[in-house]
Amino acid sequence: MRGVEGLVSExxxxxxxxxxxxxxxxxxxxxxxxxxxxxGDSLGLARKAVESGADVIVFAGVSFMAEMxxxxxxxxxxxxxxxxxxxxxxxxxxxxxxxxxRSEIPNTPIVLYVNSLTRxxxxxxxVVTSASAAKLISRLGEEVVVFGxxxxxxxxxxxxxxxxxxxxxxxxxxxxxxxxxxxxxxAKALAENPGAKLIAHPETPRKVRAIAHAIGSxxxxxxxxxxxxxxxxxxxxEGLTYRARKLYPSRAKEIIPANPLAVCVDMKKITLMxxxxxxxxxxxxxxxxxxxxxxxxxxxxxxxxIIK
Length: 308
Ligand code: 13P
Ligand code: SF4
Fold this sequence. Notes:
Layout: H1 4-18, E1 20-25, H2 30-35, E2 38-40, H3 42-51, E3 56-60, H4 63-72, E4 77-79, H5 95-104, E5 110-113, H6 118-121, E6 126-128, H7 133-139, E7 144-148, H8 151-161, E8 164-167, H9 175-180, H10 183-192, E9 197-200, H11 206-210, E10 214-215, H12 218-226, E11 230-235, H13 239-247, E12 253-257, H14 272-281, H15 290-307
Parallel strand pairs: 1-2, 1-3, 3-4, 5-6, 5-7, 7-8, 9-10, 9-11, 11-12
Bound molecules: 1,3-dihydroxyacetonephosphate and iron/sulfur cluster.
Iron/sulfur cluster is lined by residues 62, 87-89, 115, 174, 176, 203, 237, 264, 266-267.
């Protein structure tokens, strides 16, 4: 049986031969993060997908992220190593529901979180990531905005911008952040680590965000750690802890996951073997209907124009 080194050198050789690039989300398994050319948050990954001169993009993340890469790169081959890796949050909002809300309140802008179905995104006015949501919404002229499908991010944006943000649907949430990173786990981690600074993802519930030293996307959370010495508690999926410890190996920082059991099983469905198989068999090709992709690009480009 091949060891990890054997798999890694096969992946490296195939990558060179196919002029491929591997993009991985901050929650991916350590073995996948280590083989990636770029590891980042949703916004950083979308940007890298556009900038990379590669012919083939292997996208190690959940399916909406791989679809975004395909939408933004219609002429490239985008591969998703495991198409079973979806995002339960994205499934809270159907395109039909977005259309209904559009006709119920036609003059209210509809902003969707990137963690949504591609067919829902094309019905929206704007698409944002956790890194850009507050910035984009603060720049809109309207004081009332529809935002979905994450109710916690909607609440965070409302707090930051002072605008009236209507969550669509009212109950959409990420199960990892809602149930495994709630006030119970966070209070426990803080009690066990007196003096630690808490950094939270905006998908966490309000009571967690209320006591956080800083709030941001996964890459913004990594950036915040830079300025802190001592203990830092990360209230997000546990994969970010691996990334943070790798980026900041100094003993001056002790990086602690708020709950080591806060695992996104979908993000963890992609293994090193899946990445290798993906390159070997050129599977699974991410295909988005060209008309849907064209409309999605329009929404994304309009959104990027506002936040640039
Ligand atoms: P980021 O864009 O902050 O990396 O978040 C993606 C995500 O799925 C959070 O659960
Ligand atoms: Fe979706 Fe939550 Fe997993 Fe992020 S952590 S991909 S929002 S289920």
